[in-house]
TrEMBL record, chain A:
Keywords: ATP-binding, Nucleotide-binding. This is ATP-binding cassette domain-containing protein. InterPro entries: AAA+_ATPase, ABC_transporter-like_ATP-bd, ABC_transporter-like_CS, ABC_transpr_LolD-like, P-loop_NTPase. Pfam families: ABC_tran. It comes from Nonomuraea terrae. GO terms for cellular component: plasma membrane. Residues 4-249 form the ABC transporter domain. One of its GO terms (molecular function) is ATP hydrolysis activity. The keyword Protein biosynthesis does not apply.
TrEMBL record, chain B:
It comes from the Bacteria. GO terms for molecular function: ATP binding; ATP hydrolysis activity. Gene3D superfamilies: P-loop containing nucleotide triphosphate hydrolases. GO terms for biological process: organic phosphonate catabolic process. Residues 28-273 form the ABC transporter domain. This is ATP-binding cassette domain-containing protein. The keyword ATP-binding applies. The keyword Nuclease does not apply. Keywords: ATP-binding, Nucleotide-binding.
Amino acid sequence: MNVLEIRGLVKSFTLHTIDGRTVGALHGVDLDVAAGEHVALAGSSGAGKSSLLRCVYRTYVPTSGRVLLRTSSGAVVDLAALPDAQVADLRGRELGYVSQFLRAEPRRAVLDVVARAGVARGMDPDAARDAAAGALRRLGIDERLWAMHTTVLSGGQKQRVNLAAGTISPPRLLLLDEPVSALDPVNREAVLSMIADLTGAGVAVLSVFHDLDAIERLATRVVVLEGGRVAAEGAPGAVLRDSRLNLEVAR
Amino acid sequence: MSWALKVEGLGRVYGEEGPRSLTGTGPEHGTSVSPVTGAVVAAWDVGFEVEPGEALGVVGESGSGKSTVMRCVAGDERPSRGSAYLRAYDDGATDVLALDDGARRRLRVDRVAVVYQDPAAGLDLDTSAGGNIAERLTAAGARNFGRIRDRAAELLELTEVPLSRMDDPVRTFSGGMRQRVQIAKALANRPPVLLLDEPTTGLDASVAAGVLDLLRNLLERLGVAAVVVSHDFGVIEMLTRRVMVMQHGRVVETGLTDQLLEDPQHPYSQRLVAAARG
């Protein structure tokens, strides 16, 4: 049974502050993600990969189409049309989003950022602190940094803190936007293995990686976007072989 | 989850209140002043709900009507029309805007608290910090001197005001410290609804940051339903999860806070965000 079913998703932006023109980002995307499945979005820059993730998380307002999420209670909700307060309630426990950039909350300690994400998902505060410590340790964040404000971290450290916060209590659907782009090989390995474990535990993952090796290793299926449309879809090996050349040339 | 505060069809018109005054006002006309009657339609058809543990932001430029909405809900002003319901009053079955003045004032004791931009609006500056809080506690029926002092001390600790200053007149406090005392007083009787009107505006940047951090922590811990009026997107982003944009007295957009900042829909929201983000 699918956790996420996207049907006919269209997203366009009307730029009122410029000249009122409309710019299209997605032109009718259909896509499914099942529990325990990792679907990676591939395609060149501007193909609509991040826009798709943001439409699912409702950071972007879908212009038309449906974004159906089957929640853990079995109910099916359309994220494209759900009232704001209900979307906000689903974020965290049901719907996780880890972007390449940590929206560093000012003046908040690293451990607090991660533990708070756990508390927001209903964890007991002490349990959340323990889980946060475990996640930070696993992702190689030096304990001496835990009490420091997130603003002092490097890009790669922020990225890992972000991931620790986004996965402390695994969501039903995890959206990943370039979670390893700023990492050295050792830390990249730690993050990839954590993501693989989440999929193994039944989390539905929809991701964007620039790194084709990461896709090959983690994805159970690849969907290639081109100009806001699905251009190809299939098992990672086959799809990447066919499109690898194109993707790398496009980059 | 169910709402702690619900507002429906709120309107406030200064001047002639009839339908003639509405014509030609609002965002599409670029004004809140009626071309026919000269009345000012400060707010019209404003509605929203806030859940416990949730903060709703209200943004807009000066004159957009955001503070008018706040004052009407707080009971500082009588709206021309509309209704408001509190879960904590008659389980939400009574329109609190229709209550008489005395009953409305009593709501302010322990059901709806307000933190104003100007601490002088919420505090008696010639009374001590402890005395200001005690006044709110006695209004709710507290009589035991020792217990009142203990609770006042607890609240000052919560808002990070040094206890050594408890008996000093608020007038001798710095701006940031006065704001902390105002917050302590607002929270005195554990109100389920908290209205914050530009709570950090006018403070030095570093002082404002401290007050903002305090509010963030309190909102997370106390589970109150909050409405935050501010023209500062930094404040809105840090404190709220949903937001309502007002222009010329009308709500032009509602959305999740990150959505409003990343993908504002209304032309006015796009202009506000572009101006704030540079």
